[in-house]
Each structure stands twice: as C-alpha cells, then as structure tokens.
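Researcher: Here's a chain I'd like modeled. Treat it as a single chain, no partners, no ligands.
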Amino acid sequence: MSPTIRHTSRVSSEKLVELMFADSGDVFVGRLMNISETGMLVDSPVSKPRGTRLRFKFNQLAGKGKVMWTDDAGTCLGIDFVSLGRRERKMLSSLLEDSNT
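Model: Modeled as a single isolated chain. Structure tokens:
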C-alpha cells in the first residue's frame, strides 16, 4: 500500500536509523529516506507488517513509532511517530527548519 495524501512536508535524508521492533525485540539499522513532523520513511533490512510497533533512534532523536504502510516488498516502512518527548519534538522542528532554509 502506498500513501496518497501528505499533510506535512517531508525532508529528504540519508541518515542511518536504529530500529528496535516490539514484536521481536530485534534491532536493525535502516536508512532514513525522509522525515516530517509526523513520521518518517525508512528503507529497512527486514520486512514488517502494518501495525508493528517500534522504537527508533538516530543522532540525538529517539522515540516510538508504528508502521503505517509498506511498499510491495515490505522493506520501505512508512512510520508514524507515536511518542516523541518535548526535547525530541524541538530537535525535530530544528532539523526540519534547517533543512528547508
């Protein structure tokens, strides 16, 4: 399933992101493809179904997310942010602002 409507702008990125999946506890490193205020797109080394909960971390930004969609191969994961602290939200806003200037 692929997204058709975007409510927030996205910023491209090539950063590595650590993903820890709640269903298995396994930790993998994926490639962050883009990020917005509400979520991110990650090229993941493993396939995960919609609804899978996870923790993520890259740079100083960490939080919880949920897989909302995948590509046909199941390895591009559209992840919505479920939990970001105040500090993380501020860092994310700064990252997005800096990328748009």
